Amino acid sequence: MAGMRFSIFSLMLLSYTACVNSYSHGPPGDACFTLRPSHRGSSPQDPPSPYVVEQPFAPNGYSANTDYQITIRPLNSSIPIFKGLLCMGRDAKTSITASSTQAYGLFQTIPTDVMKFLPQNPCGGTQIGVSHRHAVQNPITGPITVTWRSPPITTTEVEVRCTIVQSELIFWQQVKPIVVTPTTLPPSTIVPSTTDENTTTGEVVTMPTTTPPTTQPATTVPSQDLLAISTSQCGESKACYRKPAGCSGSDTCDFLFTQRLVTPSSDPADAIIEVELAARVSNGMGWVAVGYSTDDRMGDDDVFGCEVGSSGLVYVKNLWNPGRFNVIDNSQDGAQYLTVLGSTQNNGRISCKFQRALRTAGVTASEQRDLDLSQPYTLFFGTRSAGTASANSGLSGRHETNPVASTQTVSASSTAELNASARDRKKLQAHGALMIIAWIGASVIGLFLARFMRKAWDKPYWFLFHRGIMVFVVVVSVIGIILIFVDVEGYSDEHKTHAALGLVTVSLAFIQPFMAFFRPAPDAGSRRTVFNWAHRIVGVAAQVLGIISVNFGLDAYKKVGFDIDDKGMIVWALWLGLLGVIWVLLEIYTSVGLSSEEKGKDIPMKDVGDQEKQKAAPEKKESRDHNLRRSVFVLFAIISVVLCLALVIIVGSAEQ
Description:
By secondary structure, the protein is an alpha+beta fold. 32% of the residues lie in helices and 23% in strands. The protein has twelve helices and 26 strands. Strands 1, 2, 4, 7, 10, 13 and 14 form a seven-stranded mixed sheet that branches. Strands 21-20-19-18-24-25-26 form a seven-stranded antiparallel sheet, with no helix packed on it. A hairpin with a 7-residue loop joins strand 18 and strand 19 (301-308). Helix 5 (426-452) packs antiparallel against helix 8 (526-559). It is elongated, with a radius of gyration of 35 Å.
């Protein structure tokens, strides 16, 4: 009983601790949609708030791509300073209690000792919102001023709203801003006006003399100048990759990457690297990214990208690539390690510029998700335009074309002109083509011969064809396995299901000729019966697993970036459907047509020469059954070969 009481007490303590920690460390992930803390037993206070949010523009009067100073402070000195804070740009027409997945504007500078950017996942970007850092370890001690950059378009009425937490149980949700003029004005008082009990609107007012204005005149950020990436220092003070070679800047290059070490230091934690990215994308929507990799293959890579959001803003994101896709990397603190210097999209081009410490706290033995950029890496360059497949999934989606990799490793201090090329995947494509030929074209014909064509000829021609085809299948499959092992440099568990099924399939096919070589004589009684069933079961199992393996293989091809379009899937579906229907109909015909005596009859596997040594049997006129089987076989073989070749062409010509 004492142990039970202790367990219950422990659970209560853990629950309380979890609640307190979620409050101290900042808002939970889903708060970026609701702007509401998840404090147990709490609910928002009724407006007006004793705290004010000051913004120097009206919701319908801001300038595009302009930096504004936003200040959050108590209404007067008698009100205690707030413990927590969560701010985002929102549509001014929405209710303060409404949840929204749409954020407007990007925060640029914040007091990093007490504030932090919201996590990329699930909020969608590190700069769309800000919150307090840690209410206990990094307490807020006075008014907060942050820099917020307005959206590049001004069609929506936008304002910066903040949820302000006084204590764990007392907070005001989505406090609407008061519009202040950034000039010296005569004394006045702040008088919020309300339209309903849940919405407070701000008027343009002057500030009381006891609290002088802290906002500054709005400064327009010259996005063209800020993000005009120059190539004049390429090969001298920074490393560059440009496409086409020799292009002169972000306004002429289809793809441009530059990197330079701006703060050299013997300690990688103190050294800073600056990266610039630019690319041409359709309609100015999509993403551009660079990945830092320890080898020339995608996987376990630190990725940085610039992505155009639905609002037209360009977000800079840090991601981790565990294999063939990107995931948001929350191990980095954007305020401490990743500093965004600018981002924009203009005239069908995306540009961004950012800095990062070479080594971050994310470099640990247990979680190598932030690579130590003081080491040399192979760089991957990729891009995608909106409106193409997977573009809607943003930077977590597949690249538009085969990403190119630098032909040499690049260090942080490198100033070289970089060359890059796509990895040659001809061996991978040859592997796929050979396996399709073996298991979609050849083996199914060989199995058809053994199952339905034994009675189609007076002599066992079926056996000659069956044996030759199946030996061909084994040889081609072994070559295909060798090619893929060479391509991936050994066994890869990246596509575990396909790899495992493929190895089992080829192993079963490989032992079939040896089983047939040691088959008992036709008059061996039960031993022959056991062999017959074992040979059939292994053969059918290999064929079924081969078809399933090819299906997983096509899916793996798409995941590694090969553009197997709808035509490939249509051909695959036709093959499965047409040949499946023919097979089932012939199974029904065979089951109905054979007598029980014929079903139990064993037809010996002998070569034509051995058969001719026997006493010649009287020739029989070909029956309608023989003609039907031969006709169906020809149809089956033609469909199989034609669709197989079509699939081989699609796989062999697919581009990454």
